[in-house]
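**Archive record**
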Amino acid sequence: MIPEYPRFKALELTDREAIELSFGRKSPLTCELTSANLFIWRDFDRPQLTLINDNICCLINPLVHYPYFLEPFGDNKVLETTELCLKHIGIISRVSMSYVGSIPHRQYKISCLRDQADYIYVTKELAELKGRRYDGKRNHLNNFKRRHPDYSFVPLEPTDQPRALAVFEKW
């Protein structure tokens, strides 16, 4: 059960249903606002959940970045919920355009973080990397292969987590 603010709890797989119900009929428009993404990145982002005005609010506490809230999951008293989130930590990030459109722009500083933009690709095109459009991605791949001719592709196992996190932190 997700506690009422100001108490928080760490994200658990059992929170999936509550998170998805809180979106109602609208699907999340950014990848960060999905229960799958939150769960996959839970060891790095360390999400914590709380309820504010019956909205699920997710506080992200990344290992190498400042903490921030995601936009509230739900549509109850969104402005009041936003105010409380901002009083708590000062930043709400990785938000959808619909959320940005629902808050008064004069009252808040809103800026685009290009590095946090979502991208959508056709799976087949991304797998094949054909055409000029994918020149940059092909070049990255070819450079990697030249620099690391002995590379191998293997599935990650739980025992690989410390080394994978070290690579991510160095990157």
Observations:
- The radius of gyration is 19 Å.
